[in-house]
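Postdoc handover notes: sequence design on the structure in folder B. Input tokens:
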């Protein structure tokens, strides 16, 4: 059986039946446990599953916004504060979806800025701040994740330009590839990258390597990566060799 076919069958088994042991997968596919272990390593490197003791599990994509918002708040606030310090009054800022972008929005109160976003929580945070010119992108609402997506969002972004894009991620691979767990968000993120003059990735230490099956961009499309660190040597080298500055808070 070809490796690609085995990988498909492994993922199908994990999605339909939940966590599975190496021995069970070996019996189902008729291959050795050693082959299954190698397959699981490869699939984890690609962000398609998580290895656990004796087996593996497939994660269920993004967690709802309300759940993620309560995780690693201090780390996200430190990253947000550093990101906010990069922006000068009078500039335009494009904020991605996600909880770190929301924490950054909280740091922008009282500033004279233009903020563009598809993040509904960012909109709610800044809606009453009269010093901020707020642009909400159109699109289809993803209620659980408090975001706007789809061709309308992408069309809006093609009409706009921002001095800064602050981009979120679910994972950064050792080669510097920026990943996301939700395929529907990826086209919007790519459109944001094209609309931003300077692209800044906001990624706490859990995002190295994090998760994600869909590639958003390569390291060469990033100008800065802000994290609470530390970043493993291989990933940091990949980012810096591609021209991205790594800033550790």
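Designed sequence:
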């Amino acid at each position: 059986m070809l490796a690609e076919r085995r990988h498909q069958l492994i993922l199908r088994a994990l999605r339909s039946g939940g966590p599975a042991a190496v021995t069970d997968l070996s019996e189902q596919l008729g291959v050795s446990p050693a082959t299954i272990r190698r397959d699981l390593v490869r699939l984890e490197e690609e962000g398609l599953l998580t290895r656990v003791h004796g087996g593996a599990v497939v994660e269920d994509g993004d967690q709802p916004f309300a759940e993620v918002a309560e995780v690693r708040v201090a780390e996200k606030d430190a990253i947000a504060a550093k990101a906010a310090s990069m922006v000068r009054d009078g500039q335009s800022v494009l904020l991605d979806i996600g909880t770190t972008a929301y924490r950054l929005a909280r740091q922008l109160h009282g500033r004279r800025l233009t903020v563009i976003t598809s993040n509904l929580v960012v909109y709610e945070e800044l809606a009453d701040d009269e010093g901020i010119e707020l642009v909400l992108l159109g699109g289809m609402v993803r209620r659980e994740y408090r975001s706007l997506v789809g061709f309308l969002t992408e069309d809006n972004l093609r009409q706009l330009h921002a001095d800064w894009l602050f981009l979120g991620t679910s994972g950064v691979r050792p080669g510097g590839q920026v990943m996301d767990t939700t395929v529907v968000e990826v086209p919007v993120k790519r459109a944001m990258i094209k609309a931003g003059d300077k692209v800044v990735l906001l990624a706490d230490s859990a995002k190295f390597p994090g998760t994600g099956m869909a590639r958003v961009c390569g390291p060469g499309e990033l100008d800065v990566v802000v994290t609470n660190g530390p970043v493993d040597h291989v990933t940091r080298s990949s980012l810096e060799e591609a021209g991205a500055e790594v800033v550790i808070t």
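Context for whoever picks this up: The chain is about 40% helix and 25% strand. Don't rerun without checking with the PI first.
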